[in-house]
Each structure stands twice: as structure tokens, then as C-alpha cells.
Specification:
mainly alpha; 591 residues; single chain
Length: 591
Amino acid sequence: MPRPPFLRRSNSGIIQTFHYEIKPKISHPPSIPVSQYLLLNIFTHSTRRNEEQLNQIHAHMITSGHLHNPTLTSKLVASFASKTVPGSTSVARRIADQIDGLDTYSWNTIIRGYLEGNDPEEAILVYNHMRRKGLKVDTYTLVFAIKACGLRPVILEGKQIHGQIFKMGFGLEVIVQTALLKLFGLFDEDRVVQQIFDEMPHRDLVMWNALIAAYARGNCPYKVREVSYDMVRSNVKPNGVTAVSILSSCSSLRALREGKAVHGYVTKNLIEFDVFVHNALIDVYSKCGSIQDAFRVFQLMPVRNVVSWTSLINGYSDNNCPNEALGLFKQMEAENIRPDEITVLGVVCMCTKLRSFELGEWIDQYVAKTRLIKESPAIANALMDMHAKCGNIMKSCQIFDGMKEKTIASWTTMIQGLAMHGHGFSALVRFCQMQREGFKPDGIFFLSLLSACSHAGLVDEGRRYFSSMEADYHITPWMEHYGCMVDILCRAGLLDEAFEFVQNMPIKPDMIVWRTLLRACQTRGNISLSNQVMKMNHLCDSGPKKSEDYVLLSNLFASNAEWDNVKKLRKEMKIRGVTKQYPGSSFIEVD
């Protein structure tokens, strides 16, 4: 039996590409022509076609007239849409637009293709096209469209689809309602999430997990606990996914007892005690200060991933165990487990806390060796901050100047480091450079800029930048910005102007603002202004006080010989159990 022409031609390459030959004994339904039957077999048995091969098949279907066969075209569309090559889904869409009668499956593959290509806007446009053309929509169409809405910055399209679902009769489909529940959970629409859940007559484990995860993601730990109890009372057995969400809420609440209860439950009842549950347990024990329990969970893990190592390293760092954290990081390196960005950020932040020049150099060399600094601006920013706080501002400048991609956080870190070392003018030069490069400052950046003016005694510049926040950048100053401005005036000895500035603040000054002003009065011996502030009783009425507030007030009362008030303060300190939690200390690093 001769081969069809499109398989026999030497320049087509199809025989060599597909390794497909027609055997004489092959039979096919008499109602299907030979060429159509061959194409169906090619699509069915040859799933890994590359783009060139699909283009060859497409060209043959056009020349042979098979492109208008809905069955064959559906296979072609699905093949193009499933490819990860950029533009292949658009080719599938153009083919589908030319053919009438394509089934829902074909359009679903196009929507899914756009989703996998991270193009949710096009996915939603295809869904809307199906609706306008009156094409049949099924549960998978809706689920893909809802997922696309979850990748968009606004919930508007999701709310529209929510309304269409009931009109189309999918209001009781569990898979669709679960997808909606997850969608509204992403946008913290807790009321809608609960409403969708309450309206479902049948709730499976996946829906319960989606509700718990939505509350956990929305930082509603008490709701997570409440829904978990309801789930158990409804005789729905939790699984590993449930446990991870509940443990996440325990971490937020620092609820060690509840975390241990969940640990006991999953140990007794869960078969799939997987790495995700272990990682969640390490996190909850670390956050609750029970670092030894976290280490025991880590030791008992049959399989560990990079998140396991990172969670315990960060746990040691947060619980003031730097040596253990560094030892674990070196063990991780010895076992040839490549740390990710979060792991390295945790180690860099720990070195920053220790203010160790030697450790800073070590982690800097490690990052340079692994070339992570070129891949991650966040790591470069963390290294800049570390070197500045360890006293090596020149190294911070070198890292900053070597960055190919700078962010507003990079500029903020650089200016903050310069301010810390008293290089106020250099900080202002960097600010001008930032403006020339088109970066727009935010509120956090202005805190660093005002701090630089404060350390360098640049009063006029500080006034100008503070005024420009609202006038030029439409940023409403925070309490911290007002505090920086008071500090600038107090450091320059302009106490009367600082007091007037505080009195004219549009928001009520907090303890830190009054503390800054009173400490400046004490340092410069301005007894009259300190008495004026004390008579106004601002510091005493500004909320809970720290030990330093009591010491400051006591010294001020003592300087005015108001011994009754000194005695009253000391009595209050004794009743409240106020002590100096962090006594003054210093350390040096030796070789």
C-alpha cells in the first residue's frame, strides 16, 4: 500500500520526524478517509511534537482542506496551546477564530495555555469571547477563568464571573465554588468568602481547606481556629493541607500550646506527614521560642528541602542563637544543598545583628562566590546594610555602585548607611543622583533622608525636604517624619522652634517626640522649657512608658528639686515592675 503524498515527499521531513509508517494491515473505519485517520493517529500517539513539526501539520491541514474538520482542528489547537514556546497559544487562538463548531475542550486549552504562559488578561478575553459567541461553557472553563482573575491586580472581573456563574446554573458545583472561594480569599474579601461557603449545601475537604487557607492568608488566625473546630464537628477529617494552614495561624498567634496540640493530632492521625507539615511545625516552634522542639522536628524529618533548612536557620537567628544558625548553614553547605535567596538573606541579617566585621566579610565572599548578588537586588541591599552597620561604609558604596538593577530600597539603604556614618552631604548627593535616574522617593526613603540631615546638622535642607514631601511628592508625613524633624531642630539647639513645631503638629505627638524634646532640654540645660513641657504633662499622658521614660522624668524632677514627684515615679516603677531590660554594654572583636 503506497504512502500518501505528504508522507512520501522527501523534503517534508515528516516520516523522519514522526517515525511513522503505514503498515499494510492497518485498518480504519470506512467512514473516515485515510489521511484524516493518519492525522488522528499522529495527534493521539505523538504527543511531544515540537513547534516545527506542528507547523508542518498545520500547513498540510490547510493545503488538504482538513483545517475545517472540527475534530482534527481541535487536536491541532490543543497541541499548540499546550506548548510552552512563546506565542504558541496565540497561534492556537488564531486557528480557533477561523473555525466554526470547535468544542469547549479546545477553547479551554487556549485559556489554560494563556494561564500557563502567565497572561491572565488574554485568558479572560478568550472567556469573554466564548460568552459573546454563545459557546458552551463548562466547569473547567469557569475554573480557568477564575484562576486568571486571581492573577489580576483587581477583583472586578472575578465579581463579574461570580454573578455569571449563578445565571449559567453552576451555583452548586463544588469545584467552581471552591475556586471562587480561593479567589476572594486572595483579595481578603472575608465576607464574600464566608458567604460562598455558607451557601454550599455540600462541602468537601477541599472546600474546608480553601476556607481555612483564605483566613490564614488574610491574617485572621482566630477565624482559622474557629473554622477548624467547625470542621472537626462536621465530621470532616483534616489532612496535611489543613494542618499547614492551622499551624500558620498558630505561628501568627505565637500559640505554642495549640501548635503542640496540632503536632500531636497529625502524628496520630495523618498518613501523609509530609515535608510541608514538618516545615510548618519548625516555623511554629521557632516563632514561639521553643527552638529545641524545632530542632527535634528537623532531626526527625525523613526528607528535607531548602525551606526546612531556612526555617530552622531563621529560627535560630530570631531566638538569639547565632552560632547554631551559622553552624547549620555550614552543614547545609557541606551537604551540597544550595541555599535560596531567603536562606542567604536570613544569614546576612543575622550577621548584621551581630555587627561582626569578620562574619560580614565571610558571608560577602560566600555570596560573591555563588553569584547570588548578581541575581538578587534584595541580597545586595542586605549586604549594603550589613557592611554599613559593621563599620565598612566604603564596601557598601562599592556594592551599590556595582548593582546593575537598583530599586528604591537600594537607594534608601545607601542613604541610610551614609547617614549612620555622618556623611550627610554624600547622602544628599546620592539623592540628587537618584532623582536624575528617575526614581521617585517614598515615605521610608524620606525617613533616611531626614535622618541624614539630622546626623549632619543640615537644618535648612531638612526643613526643605520635609516640606517637599507633601508639596512635591504628595506624601503625608508619618509620626516618624515629625520625630525626625524634631530631632533635627533639637540637635541644632533650636529648642523653642522644636517646641513650636510639636505644638503645631496635625496629629497628636507620641512618647518618642516628647522624649526627644525633653532629652534635648536636659542636655542643653534649658530648664524653663522643660518645666513648661512638664507642666503640660505631655509625657505622663502619652501612653505606656518605658524604663527610659521613667529615668528621664525622674532626672527632670530631681533637677527641679521636685522630690515628691521623684518618689511617686519610683513607687509607680516598683508597682508596675519596670526594670531596665537592656543595660548598657559594649564589646570588641578580637582576632
